[in-house]
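Hi, here's the filled form for the chain we discussed.

Project: internal
Contact: R.S.
Residues: 58
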Amino acid sequence: MARVCENCGGEDDEMVLVRRTYVVPESWDTPGSATTLDEPELWCWSCRSQYPHEPVDQ
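And the returned structure, exactly as it came back:
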C-alpha cells in the first residue's frame, strides 16, 4: 500500500522518517546556518535525494 510523502504529496511504497533541515547559505555579511526541525516527517526517495534532511534513527 502506497503512502503519501509529507514533503511533496507523492505516493510511494518506500517512505523513510526524516527531520527537515532548513539551510541558509553564507552571504558576504552573514554566516551560513542550518536548522533541523524536531518533528519527523515521512519522505519519499525523490525528496530525500533533493532536499537537506537528517534520517531519524529507528
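Let me know if anything looks off before we file it.
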